Amino acid sequence: MLNKRDHLILDTLLPAGAHPGLPLGLAGAGFDAFWSEFERTALPSWRRGFRAALWLATWIAPLLIRRPPPLTLYNRPARERALAAMERSRLYLLRQMIGLLKTTVSLGYGAAGDVRQAIGYPLQHDDPRRPVAS
Fold first, then answer.
1. pTM for this entry
2. What radius of gyration, in Å, describes the C-alpha atoms of the chain?
3. Which has more confidence, 133 or 100?
4. pLDDT in tens, 54-100
5. Measuring CA to CA, how many Å separate 113 from each of 53, 83, 97, 126?
6. What is the 3 state secondary structure string of the chain?
7. If both were cysteines, with which of 20, 104, 105, 121 could 116 make a disulfide (CB 3.0 to 4.6 Å apart)?
8. Rounded CA separation 105/107 (Å)
């Protein structure tokens, strides 16, 4: 289960209203349901990597902008700067970890039906909203 700190970090990556065509943020897109499925079915290395990435974002990213951790102490602009600094870090591991966070967040966001509908993604064959052919 993700804690309050984790949710704040993830919300910083994909807040509500980040794009005019996509009003939902990660929380509004049902990331918790995706996360439950992810914890159950993803490879253990992905789960551990995601947890490690969240830990690094929380405790190491603020140091990159010369602020004491945890990152959750700060407002959104400071959190965004810290995560951007992690993305630009000279350390390969930090760049990979933010990439893993973004990839997982993208998978969870893209799995939401409302998001798929907003971007015009066609209904899948097993989607309950798909009209039944006679």
1. 0.86
2. 16
3. 100
4. 999 999 999 999 999 999 999 999 999 999 999 999 999 999 999 99
5. 26, 28, 27, 12
6. CCCHHHHHHHHHHCCCCCECCECCCCCCCCHHHHHHHHHHHCCHHHHHHHHHHHHHHHHCHHHHCCCCCCHHHCCHHHHHHHHHHHHHCCCHHHHHHHHHHHHHHHHHHHCCHHHHHHCCCCCCCCCCCCCCCC
7. 121
8. 5
